[in-house]
Write a structure and sequence with these properties.
Length: 145
Amino acid sequence: MNTEKKAIQDVVDICHDGMKGYEKAASEIHNEEFKTIFNRLAQQRKLFIEELKADVRDQGIDIDDSGTVKGYFHRNWLDVKSSFTNKEDKEIIEEAKFGEKEAVKVYNEALNADVPKYIKEKLEMQRKLIAGSIEQLNEFAKETV
């Protein structure tokens, strides 16, 4: 797999994991405001995936959007864990922040890869939105938890 495709695939994978993670978080969290935020962020990640897939499709590159095995097992571990304990909203928010920080790392790696300028611009914009969601989660967590 060439470096461009791998970089984009890694970003799409982390976005898919984020989308599924936010859907799960929205279903588990008690705070209605966070439920709305998590659903919005899940939709945002879905949009990120579609944008990137369309950009690389124009170059003849096919990207898989099924996520990573690591993300799948993390979500399933959380299912098992939550069946034994009642998750607090604070824990769910902390897991969301952790996932966003991991996403920023993946985006940084992709931005250092050999990808066309117009895709780098899209990646930079998406990374800024993810960084903004970390700030938003921090602020709302202070107010509500």
